[in-house]
């Protein structure tokens, strides 16, 4: 910042700008030095280790891996059953003694219609009309 008084010209002289430019240059060089030192020595301190996750992610399944669940559902692909409720597009169907929540591929299926399991994805059972 430069001082400007009413009797001075609007455009400052080179000598007037020299001190602020020198201060700015020193601040930029000093900040690069401080950032470099912090980047080099901060990860080795106990203060940094308290806040940063140092350990790598464990190996094994992740969100991008295919989902496989222990569903415990007593049905498999191709099992035949009867729609207990109207499936629009979800509802309940009976397979043997068990009543299971199911969904269709988008079509509406009336109650008491025969259905066939076309896909099982975790706890999601997809059926189609038989």
Describe the model.
By secondary structure, this protein is of the alpha+beta class. Helix content is about 25%, strand content about 25%. The chain has two helices and five strands. It has a five-stranded mixed beta barrel with strand order 1-2-3-5-4. A hairpin with a 6-residue loop joins strand 1 and strand 2 (about 90-95). It starts with 13 loop residues before the first helix and ends with a strand. The model has no long low-confidence stretch (mean pLDDT about 85).
What is the first-to-last residue Cα distance?
Answer: 83 Å
Summed up, the helix count is: 2
**Backbone structural class:** alpha+beta
- Total domains: 2
Order of helices and strands: HHEEEEE
Write the layout of secondary structure elements.
Layout: H1 14-41, H2 46-51, E1 80-83, E2 90-95, E3 98-104, E4 114-121, E5 124-129
Parallel strand pairs: 3-5
Antiparallel strand pairs: 1-2, 1-4, 2-3, 4-5
Question: Which key phrases capture this entry?
Answer:
single chain, 130 residues, alpha+beta, OB fold (Dihydrolipoamide Acetyltransferase, E2P), 2 domains, five-stranded mixed barrel, 26% helix, 24% strand, elongated
TL;DR?
Strand 1 and strand 2 (90-95) form a beta hairpin.
């Amino acid at each position: 910042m430069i001082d400007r008084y009413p009797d001075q010209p609007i455009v400052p002289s080179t000598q007037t700008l020299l001190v602020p430019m020198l201060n700015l240059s020193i601040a930029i060089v000093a900040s690069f030095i401080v950032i470099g030192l912090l980047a080099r020595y901060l990860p080795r301190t106990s203060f940094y280790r308290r806040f940063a996750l140092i350990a790598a992610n464990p190996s094994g399944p992740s969100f991008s891996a295919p989902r496989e669940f222990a569903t415990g559902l007593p049905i498999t692909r191709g099992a035949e059953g009867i729609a207990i409720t109207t499936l629009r597009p979800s509802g309940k169907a009976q397979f043997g003694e068990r009543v299971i929540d199911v969904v269709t591929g988008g079509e509406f299926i009336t109650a008491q219609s025969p259905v066939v399991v076309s896909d099982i994805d975790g706890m999601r059972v997809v059926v189609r009309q038989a």
